[in-house]
Design goal:
Keywords: Membrane, Methyltransferase, Transferase, Transmembrane, Transmembrane helix. The chain is an alpha/beta fold and about 260 residues long. It has helices spanning about 20-35, 50-55, 105-115, 135, 155-165, 185-195, 235-259; strands at about 45-50, 65-70, 90-95, 115-130, 170-175, 205-210. It starts with about 20 loop residues before the first helix and ends with a helix.
Amino acid sequence: MKPARSRKKFERPYTWEQLHNGPWLRESIQTRLDEWCPKLFGYHMLKLGGLSCEISSCTCNIQHQVNLDIQNPLHNVIADDYNLPFLEKSFDVVVLSHQLDYSNDPHRMLREVDRVMMDDGYLIVTGFNPFSFTGLASLLPWRKNSLPWSGRMYTPNRVKDWLGVLNYQVIHCDTYALFPMSRYRAFWTWLENSLGSWASVAGSQYFIVARKRTYPIKPIKPHWHLKRRFSPVSASFRAGVRSTSLESSSLSNCNKKAD
């Protein structure tokens, strides 16, 4: 397995129009995000990257939403993804839409996101699955250097492992779009549904929802101790103790007389 960190600087798309079938990809992510928006709560939301900025979250209960990017015109904060200009534990929800695919150091990006994430906050990550038709198309020479195949694609299990190291609990993972084609979409959707759940493993897109968990390193033990339960001694046990004491006293008296 190749290391995630790379010296190559990837061309990062800032709008869905730059990607092949970009508008359809945005609609598919939008549909899944709309299902989760009523479940998200808090005060501040961060949408990191130009692709995340173009995903609508108007149905979310969080009022204050920050769009961070350099080139996308929908941004309201311009900054580097690896050095976010926010205090620690500032956001309740962070959306990363296809940002890990075009990052030369995804570990650093996730650590920076974890720094500004509140405890029990939600992290939504989307990306391309390398074990899919889209991933196999990146092996073709004439598509290797063009979007969206020019980036690095990571499997959903690998992304979940990274989140587990940062102490995130994956509460939802959806892999879909077995046939990533916008033409005759109704037919391809019907065919994908007819194949069953086993075909979702080879889906071109993944949608992960994780929640930050904070556990104490050392378990806190109570200062108080339980008292032993009071158990009265039975009469037979008392009689046995009394008989043994009488026998020992008689033996001691006999020894004294013998002396």
